[in-house]
Specification:
- This protein is of the alpha/beta class and about 240 residues long.
- It has one domain: Acetylglutamate kinase-like (Carbamate kinase, 3-Layer(aba) Sandwich).
- A nine-stranded mixed sheet has the order 4-3-5-2-1-6-10-11-9, sandwiched between helices. It has a two-stranded antiparallel sheet with strand order 7-8.
- Strand 1, helix 1 and strand 2 form a beta-alpha-beta unit.
């Protein structure tokens, strides 16, 4: 007899992608093959009946905080430039998803009506209910807030069950595993421990928002094909942050 179809553990998720994850082995910009792979994985979980919201960073193109610190550029201007970089990444992912037959909407916190819809919470939820993937661009629309904070905020607004934080490593470590070979990996950790230990999971504002609203976070390696689907199906992948 054929095996029964896999049943997802989560019905509505927010996937947080870094801008750096889109550039693959390149030092800058967007690698079309990487974007194509991410789009295929999103399509797979959408086909399981999961409602997917995405938030993408812009660090592969422009990082506002770093630019402001290194060049003396006004922080507000630099952050607005970083927000526009997230719009570029969001359009790239939308294009790839649409090519695979997935109906997608880019919702921007900055009004750029020619290329994206304005972000409205009720509209975002309605798109999800209709089975569309939504890509939320331009962070919160405010300077001084990271896309991690935007991901936490939007997850709560659309009532996502969990935040999936895609990274280059397979979870949360006591130190950067790429620099410290004997760093300890945490399979599960609390929000308070993340804050107390100063672990670079998400920024402290994002972690505090998730803690106050009890939204769990799974940090996992997005470079391994199929990991997003494994997380959705409840396999123990990466590290879990919860109360």
């Amino acid at each position: 007899m054929p095996e029964p179809p896999a049943s997802p553990r989560y019905r509505r998720v927010l996937l947080k992608l870094s801008g750096e994850s889109l550039m693959g082995t390149r030092g800058f910009g967007i690698d079309p093959e990487v974007v194509s792979g991410i789009a295929d994985e999103i399509r797979e979980i959408r086909d399981l009946g999961v409602q997917v919201a995405c938030v993408i960073g812009g660090g592969n193109i422009f990082r506002g905080l770093a630019a402001g610190a290194s060049t003396g550029m006004d922080r507000v201007t630099a952050d607005h430039m970083g927000m526009l970089a997230t719009v570029i990444n969001s359009l790239a992912l939308q294009d790839r998803l649409e090519r695979t037959g997935v109906h997608t909407r880019v919702l921007s916190a900055l009004e750029i009506r020619q290329v994206a819809e304005p972000y409205l919470r009720r509209r975002a939820v309605r798109h999800l209910e209709k089975g569309r993937v939504i890509i939320i661009a331009a962070g919160t629309g405010n300077p001084y807030f990271t896309t991690d904070t935007a991901a936490a905020l939007r997850a709560m607004e659309v009532k996502a069950e969990i935040i999936l934080k895609a990274t280059r490593v397979d979870g949360i470590y006591s130190s950067d595993p790429e620099k410290v070979p004997d760093a300890v990996r945490y399979e599960e950790i609390t929000y308070l421990q993340v804050l107390e230990k100063g672990l670079q999971v998400m920024d402290s504002t994002a972690i505090s928002l998730c803690m106050d609203n009890r939204v769990p976070i799974i940090v996992f390696n997005s470079n391994i094909r199929g990991n997003i689907r494994r997380v959705i199906l409840g396999e123990k992948i990466g590290s879990l942050v919860r109360g």
